[in-house]
C-alpha cells in the first residue's frame, strides 16, 4: 500500500472548501487512488472556520519571523467518508478566511500579500507534521499550485526540514497566471521577514521579471520531482511566451517549463470528471431554483444596491416560471479576466449575442461572482437587456440546474488550463461553445461535440465568437438532426479520472508497474 499526501488550498470532499476546479480535483483524485487500495491524506488550511467540527490531533511548534508560532492540526469529517482517505485542516489565527469564496484574498494594492502570509504558515505547519510523521511514512507528496510550493522551499533550504528530501514531490499547475510573487525583503509578507536567519539561493527562487521578488509558482516548477499541467494542450501553450490578449502562454515562466520538459519532468495530463450518478436535480427546475435562491438571499442581504439587483433579477425570472424560453444559453464561472475578458473589452459582442437570442425568444443565464469591474459591467447589461439573467450570487442547486436544463453552455475563456464546466455540461448532453484554447481544445470538437472559435488577432477571435454562436443557433433552429447528434456525441464523451490517474501513476508517481494495484 502506497501512502500519499495531497497539499492544496481547496478540497470539495469537505464542506465549504471550494471556489474553483482545484476543489474538484482534490475531491476526486484521492477517491480514485483509494479504489486502487492506496492510502491518501489530504490537508488544506482551516481559514479560521473549517476546524470547528474537527478533532484536534496535534499542536505544531514553528519558528517563523524569529519567534515561536503554534499551529494546530485537525482531522475533519468528509462529506462522503472513505476508509482509505483522511482529511485534515491546519488552523492558526493568521490563516484567515479570504474575501473570495471564503478562501483567497484579493489584495488590489499588493497582490498575494495576505495569501502568502496564510500559506507560508500553512506550509510550514505541514512540513512540521510530515517531520513528526503525523501522516505516517509517505511515498508521494502531491502539491497543488503556488499555495503549497513553500514546502519545496523548506525541503531545499531549511535544515529543520531536510527530512522532506526522502519524499517524492509532485507539483500540479492548475493556473499558471497566479504565481504568488512577493519581495525577498523589506515587507511584512516577504521571505526574509518569515525566515530572517535562513540562508538560501536567491537566484533559485527569483522571479524572471522582478529581480527583487521570489516566485512561488517558479519554486514548484524548479524543485519538484515531477510537474504537470491539467491538460496536454495547456502544457504546449505554456512552453511558449505569452502575447496577451492574442495568446496566453508561459506568463514569464516558459523557460523554467522548457527546462523541466527537457529534463523529462514536465507532463500534460487531462483532468477527469465525475460520472457517478450523484444527487441529480430535477429537470426543468432552473428558473424555480433561481427564484428560490434570490428570495433566500434577499432575506439576509444588508447591502441596498445588492438587494435591489437581486430583486431586479427576480422580476426577470418570474415570467419563465410558467413558460420557459425557447433557448437557454448559460455560463457558470468566477468573474475574472481569464473567464470573461472578451465581454469586458468588447461588450458590444455580448450585446450582439443577446440580440440574436432575442430573435429566437432565448435567454442567456450567467451565474458568478468575482472582480468588481466585471460584476458592474454585467449588472449594467442586465438592466438594459431583458433576456440577460445575471445571477450575482452562488448556489449549488442553480449551478446543477444550469448543467441540466440549458441548451448551450458558453465558455469564452481567454485561456483555460483544463476546465471542468464543459465536461459537466457535456455529461448532460449539452453542446458547449468554447474558445479553442488549453484544455478546451482537448475536450470540445467543433460541430461534433460542440462549437469552438479562434483567431489570429483579438478582433478576429471576437468576431468568430459571435459567428460561432450564430452557427450554433442555426443548427438548433434549422437542423435538429445535426443538433441532436452533437448533443448525443457530447453525452457519450468520457473524461474519466481512472484514465487520468493511470497516467499519474505511470508518469508522476513513477511506481514500478508490478507494485501498482488497479481496481
TrEMBL record:
Enzyme class: transferase
UniProtKB keywords: Glycosyltransferase, Transferase
Every Glycosyl transferase family domain range: 324-459
Pfam families from the UniProt entry: Glyco_transf_5, Glycos_transf_1
Reactions the enzyme catalyzes: [(1->4)-alpha-D-glucosyl](n) + ADP-alpha-D-glucose = [(1->4)-alpha-D-glucosyl](n+1) + ADP + H(+)
Occurrences of domain Starch synthase catalytic (ranges): 4-259
Gene3D superfamilies from the UniProt entry: Glycogen Phosphorylase B
EC number assigned by the record: 2.4.1.21
PANTHER family noted in UniProt: ALPHA AMYLASE DOMAIN-CONTAINING PROTEIN, GRANULE-BOUND STARCH SYNTHASE 1, CHLOROPLASTIC/AMYLOPLASTIC
Descriptive protein name: starch synthase
Organism listed in the record: Salinimicrobium oceani
Amino acid at each position: 500500500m502506497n501512502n500519499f499526501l495531497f497539499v492544496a488550498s481547496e478540497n470539495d470532499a469537505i464542506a465549504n472548501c471550494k471556489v474553483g476546479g482545484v476543489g474538484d480535483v482534490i475531491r476526486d483524485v484521492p477517491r480514485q487512488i483509494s479504489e486502487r487500495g492506496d492510502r491518501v491524506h489530504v490537508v488544506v488550511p482551516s481559514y479560521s472556520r473549517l476546524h470547528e467540527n474537527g478533532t484536534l490531533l496535534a499542536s505544531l511548534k514553528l519558528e517563523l519571523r524569529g519567534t515561536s508560532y503554534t499551529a494546530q492540526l485537525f482531522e475533519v469529517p468528509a462529506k462522503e467518508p472513505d476508509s482509505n482517505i483522511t482529511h485534515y485542516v491546519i488552523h492558526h489565527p493568521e490563516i484567515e478566511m479570504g474575501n473570495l469564496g471564503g478562501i483567497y484574498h484579493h489584495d488590489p494594492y499588493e497582490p498575494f500579500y495576505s495569501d502568502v502570509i496564510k500559506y507560508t504558515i500553512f506550509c510550514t505547519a505541514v512540513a512540521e507534521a510530515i517531520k513528526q510523521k503525523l501522516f505516517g511514512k509517505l511515498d508521494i507528496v502531491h502539491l497543488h499550485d503556488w499555495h503549497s510550493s513553500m514546502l519545496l522551499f523548506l525541503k531545499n533550504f531549511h535544515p529543520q526540514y531536510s527530512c522532506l528530501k526522502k519524499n517524492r514531490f509532485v507539483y500540479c499547475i492548475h493556473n499558471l497566471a497566479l504565481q504568488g510573487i512577493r519581495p525577498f525583503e523589506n515587507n511584512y509578507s516577504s521571505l526574509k521577514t518569515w525566515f530572517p536567519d535562513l540562508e538560501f539561493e536567491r537566484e533559485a527562487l527569483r522571479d524572471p521579471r522582478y529581480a527583487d521578488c521570489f516566485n512561488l509558482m517558479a519554486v514548484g516548477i524548479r524543485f519538484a520531482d515531477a510537474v504537470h499541467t491539467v491538460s496536454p494542450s495547456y502544457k504546449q501553450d505554456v512552453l511558449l511566451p505569452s502575447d496577451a490578449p492574442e495568446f496566453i502562454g508561459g506568463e514569464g515562466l516558459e523557460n523554467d517549463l522548457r527546462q523541466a520538459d527537457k529534463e523529462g519532468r514536465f507532463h500534460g495530463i487531462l483532468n477527469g470528471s465525475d460520472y457517478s450518478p450523484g444527487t441529480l436535480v430535477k429537470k426543468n427546475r432552473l428558473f424555480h431554483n433561481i427564484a428560490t435562491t434570490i428570495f433566500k438571499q434577499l432575506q439576509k442581504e444588508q447591502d441596498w444596491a445588492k438587494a435591489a439587483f437581486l430583486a431586479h433579477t427576480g422580476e426577470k425570472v418570474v415570467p419563465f416560471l410558467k413558460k420557459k424560453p425557447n433557448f437557454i444559453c448559460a455560463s457558470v464561472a468566477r468573474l475574472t479576466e481569464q473567464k470573461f475578458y472578451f465581454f469586458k473589452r468588447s461588450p458590444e459582442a455580448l450585446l450582439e449575442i443577446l440580440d440574436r437570442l432575442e430573435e429566437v425568444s432565448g435567454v442567456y443565464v450567467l451565474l458568478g461572482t468575482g472582480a468588481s469591474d466585471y460584476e458592474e459591467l454585467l449588472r449594467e447589461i442586465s438592466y438594459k437587456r431583458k433576456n440577460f439573467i445575471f445571477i450575482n450570487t452562488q448556489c449549488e442547486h442553480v449551478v446543477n440546474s444550469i448543467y441540466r436544463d440549458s441548451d448551450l453552455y458558453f465558455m469564452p475563456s481567454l485561456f483555460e488550463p483544463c476546465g471542468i464546466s464543459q465536461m459537466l455540461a457535456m455529461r448532460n448532453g449539452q453542446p458547449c461553445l468554447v474558445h479553442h484554447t488549453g484544455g478546451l481544445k482537448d475536450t470540445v470538437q467543433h460541430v461534433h461535440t460542440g462549437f469552438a472559435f479562434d483567431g489570429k488577432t483579438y478582433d478576429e477571435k471576437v468576431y468568430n465568437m459571435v459567428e460561432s454562436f450564430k452557427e450554433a443557433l442555426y443548427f438548433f433552429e434549422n437542423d435538429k438532426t445535426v443538433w441532436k447528434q452533437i448533443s448525443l456525441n457530447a453525452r457519450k464523451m468520457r473524461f474519466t479520472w481512472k484514465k487520468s490517474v493511470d497516467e499519474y501513476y505511470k508518469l508522476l508517481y513513477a511506481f514500478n508497474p508490478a507494485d501498482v494495484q488497479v481496481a
